Amino acid sequence: MDRRTILKLALGGAGLAMAGGFGTAQVAGATSRSDLLGVGDDSITVEFDDTLRSRVRMAGEPVTGFDAGEALLLGDTTIESFRYSGRESRNTRHPRHGAGVQVILHGESEQGVRKTVELTSFQRLSGMVIMKVSYTNVSGAPLQVTGWRNGAHELLAASGGFYMFSGATHEDRRDWVRPMTEGFFQENSLGMVASDYGGGTPLATVWRNGAGLSVGHVEPVPRMLRMPTRRTTKGAMIAIEGDSARTLKPGQRLSTDTTFLITHPRDHYVPLERYRRYMADIDQRAPRVGEPAFEAIWCAWGYERDFTVDQVLGTLPKAKDVGLDWAVLDDGWQTNVGDWELDPKKFPRGEADMRSFTKQIKEKGLRPRLWWAPIAAHPSSKLFAQRPDMLLLNEKGEKQKVSWWDSYTLCPAYPPVIDYFVRQATKFIRDWGHAGIKVDGQHLNAVLPCHNPAHGHARPEESTEGLARFWKLVHEAVHRAEPDAVVELCPCGTAFAFHNLPYVDQYPASDPESSFQVRSKGKSMKALMGPGSSYAGDHVELSDGGDDFASSYGVGAILSTKFTYPPRSAKDPYALTPEKERLWRQWVALYKKNMLSTGEYRGELYDIGFDKPETHVVAKDSTLHYAFYAPSWEGTVELRGLGPGRYRLTDPFHGGSLGTVDAAHNTVRLKFTKFQLIEAQRLG
């Protein structure tokens, strides 16, 4: 009998997922092939052959060939062929994920390694297969293992090329979403790619027009894995890999981290949303935040480090008059990174002057927020000189440089470090009168394993895993001091480390290098944070042209600016000129009128790679707010997501009517440069 395919897993329900529904995962009877077992519904299908190679189908159609999806790595050797030896299947129920199905496959390699593949799917997490693999040495001789690989598949090509998303950090601050050109390769390490850059969200995606694959891990703590993506002659490769250098003695077993595979018909939004749902089930979720986290922001960073207190206070009336609600005091108020003492040149009476400063901000009707870069100490600081035990040391005993501030990383899992910075955060809110903290720095996203003997770590990885707990304790301390406070985390240029997000109230675009980064980061963070969370577009001066509020507005981001006023000179790049002021006022007024930051971002409707023009949608009450982006555009666009009834179309920025549409007649012809906004309001 042909044993090419021995098991069929039909798990999830991608088509249903797009509509918000879920398939019914169950262990079904035999299919028309006596050697196939059907499990679940038709969203994602994983088929294994008699060597435990696997093929992925989406909606019944193969999107990969038979690949060595899971493999054990032994230096230059890869064990990837395992003769099938049996299976088990059962219904399962998780206390949080709910009902699902689980299938366990067994096989053995010629080298004497027994492989067990455990695959689980849950009804409420349709289109997502959870995978854990173990390898047992039954050869009678030790094996020198270097690592493992899961979810390794080649998405087959179709016309139009490929795009990819990576949740990993890169020191050059590249786009999270990128086209995969010929020869494209990206390692996507979740470890430290530099002394102060690393971490991220453990999910990577490759997709073409109509089909995509995503991989990642669902461990409750950060893991230093890789998610390589590569363009091939036949398509695009993706996998998740882990290093595990060890001698596997006879009878010993190595288990991989718990990973996943997701299929999807559009871009990375739905996979990130599925990942968020899984992690929320294990209590890793963004906090619900109050009204202050959605208020528009003015930041004093336009004056940079050499600001004067008079400059900042002098700008506040204009910031309030323009319609802004926050006043952020940025870098430069302190003597150094580490001690965080007030600069006597700016605050000669010390804390009394700071309390007077925050009082004046509040009297002008704004909320004060203070910039801070913890978990670091400058060599000139008393902290560095007096507490060398706080330093994070790598395996060679070397300090870890924080490049932007010429400082060194401290260990976030060392109790004295935690206590020191928790006290500081509490003082900023309770004693100094700030209503929020802007926590800033690329080193705050992730840290290396710590080998400082003074810390008594049971494992060096306690530092990497303990960073999220550090943020938890800071977040709790700030909210004890002021329940409505806002903790903003800006890990400059990095891809946000997901495990930190539950302990942050606001997530900015984190030093975007283009308007596309504002929008693509916005789409990604909306998927990861979920409804009720706060994403800020960062200073508009960082976007294309320094004035592209449209990119923040259209994705439902909080508006933010760092203008200076009055102009310091004719060459001041951040001066709020009369022309700029008219534009700033118009955007802030529109933002406050519609508050799209509190709406429902509908990221599943459009593909950021293949749908042209680039389109984003936010639903608010009975209105859908569409935002289209292109250098220039003339042609027809489709308004997806319309419900029953007719909708009146208006242009909220330029004014004017654009007609009416309904779900069956949902196109409109547009001609625009840079952006076009449309409000589709349901009639009746």
Layout of helices and strands, plus pairs?
Elements: E1 7-11, H1 14-18, E2 27-30, E3 37-39, E4 44-48, E5 54-58, E6 61-62, E7 71-74, E8 77-79, E9 83-94, E10 98-108, E11 113-122, E12 128-137, E13 143-156, E14 163-168, E15 177-179, E16 185-186, E17 192-194, E18 197-198, E19 200-208, E20 211-217, E21 229-231, E22 235-248, E23 253-255, E24 259-264, H2 269-281, E25 297-299, H3 309-322, E26 326-329, H4 351-363, E27 367-372, E28 376-377, H5 382-386, E29 401-402, E30 407-409, H6 415-431, E31 436-440, H7 462-481, E32 486-490, E33 506-508, H8 515-529, E34 534-536, H9 549-554, E35 560-561, H10 578-594, E36 600-601, E37 614-620, E38 623-638, E39 646-650, E40 657-662, E41 667-682
Parallel strand pairs: 25-26, 25-35, 26-27, 27-31, 31-32, 33-34
Antiparallel strand pairs: 1-4, 2-3, 4-5, 5-6, 7-8, 7-13, 9-10, 10-11, 11-12, 12-23, 12-24, 13-22, 14-15, 14-19, 16-21, 17-18, 19-20, 20-24, 21-22, 28-30, 29-30, 36-37, 37-38, 38-41, 39-40, 39-41
Helix pairs in contact: 2-8, 6-7
> Pairing-aware structural class of the strands and helices?
alpha+beta
Largest sheet: 10 strands, antiparallel
Strand content: 25-35%
User: Into which percent range does the helicity of residues fall?
Assistant: 10-25%
Q: How far is it from the N-terminal to the C-terminal residue, by CA?
A: 63 Å
Radius of gyration: 27 Å
Number of DSSP helices? 10
Poorly predicted parts: 1-5, 11-41
Shape: globular
Secondary structure: number of strands: 41
Average pLDDT rating: 93
